[in-house]
Amino acid sequence: MDNTAVQFTALLQAQGITLSPKQLEQFELYFSELVSWNEKMNLTGITEREQVYMKHFYDSLSLAFFMNMGEVNTLADIGSGAGFPGIPLKICFPHLKLTIVDSLSKRISFLQHVCDTLQLKNVQLIHGRAEDVARQFIHRDAYDLVTARAVARLALLNEFCLPFTRKDGLFAAMKGNDPSEELTEAKRSFKELRAELQKVESFTLPVEESARHIVFIRKTGATPAKYPRKAGTPAKAPLI
Fold it and tell me: For this UniProt entry, which segments traverse the membrane (predicted)?
């Protein structure tokens, strides 16, 4: 193992996550495919090895530092981009049934290639807008845990993600800066979408020492029939 892999393994071990040789190999393959495909299409601005392992892989897995992933069966990752946080979580917790929703078909092609290369099972990749997919019966009020990482402000994210979350399930919004202002702005969306703030966890990303926050939101009831609104509407008129 090189220094990056050693450091990555040690940092996760400190959080109670032990990687097998196979899982380490899957992260290595993921890294090489990400860099290779990034030359053809814009997946990430971060391609340097240590940065990918810290800012993408470790950051994605930080969700597991604050909740028991063993209790999660179904996970939906909304607006996943290059697969974060969904794919790193699936590598570490293979029991997860993962659904990824992304609006760009090229990204879905990349993710399909990654799943094939890494031999990941029980991953469903959906090309579509979150507002449309959440209207489908099979996905609505269905998932134990829903995630979104650095996608949009919370009032908007709530409308994208809470319709996928089952009653008493969790939506985890992964943020950089302190989300206090966004939480105040999102109060109406909590009420409208039948949800409540459970907790906000914060930590510092190792090496570069930048702030990270995870907003945990509990779903208290089924999504009202009028939500999510038609694709494009939430972004133009967020619930604030």
Answer: none
112 in helix, strand or coil?
A: helix
Query: Strand (E) positions, 20-59?
Result: none
**Nearest alpha-carbon partner for 183 in 157, 165, 202:** 157
Tell me the pTM: 0.97
In the chain, the amino acid numbered 207 is: V
Per the annotation, binding residues for S-adenosyl-L-methionine are 79, 84, 130-131, 149
Domain count, the chain: 1
CATH of the domain at 222: 3.40.50.150
DSSP category for residue 137: T
Q: Which two tokens stand for residue 196?
A: 């409540």
Six-digit token string for 141: 């009020």
Known binding residues: 79, 84, 130-131, 149
Residue 134 structural domain: 3-236
